Amino acid sequence: xxxxxxxxxxxxxxxxxxxxxxxxxxxxxxxxxxxxxxxxxxxxxxxxxxxxxxxxxxxxxxxxxxxxxxxxxxxxxxxxxxxxxxxxxxxxxxxxxxxxxxxxxxxxxxxxxxxxxx
Length: 118
Fold this sequence. Notes:
Blueprint: H1 3-18, E1 30-33, H2 39-50, H3 72-87, E2 100-103
Antiparallel strand pairs: 1-2
Helix pairs in contact: 2-3
């Protein structure tokens, strides 16, 4: 086999192995707190998502897996994502008055799991 053909086959193989494969053509996305959001903005959004918004925020309660770190940013990230994953197929966005952004990096850590709904 010629070195040129071998190089082409190697590049194709690398592309197949390295690039993530999604059968539906979409990337996984989570919704997290924007680092530029103020604590007041985050608290207001947490109050909405965990209250009338209907997100399941039980995992950020004391003695639960996502309670620590106990910061507005971390609790808001969990709450935003819980709401976004639950309602994104009904038109929900990851906005929360500019307090949130989407990420393609799974924010889960330790025993704290952030849901993802395809």
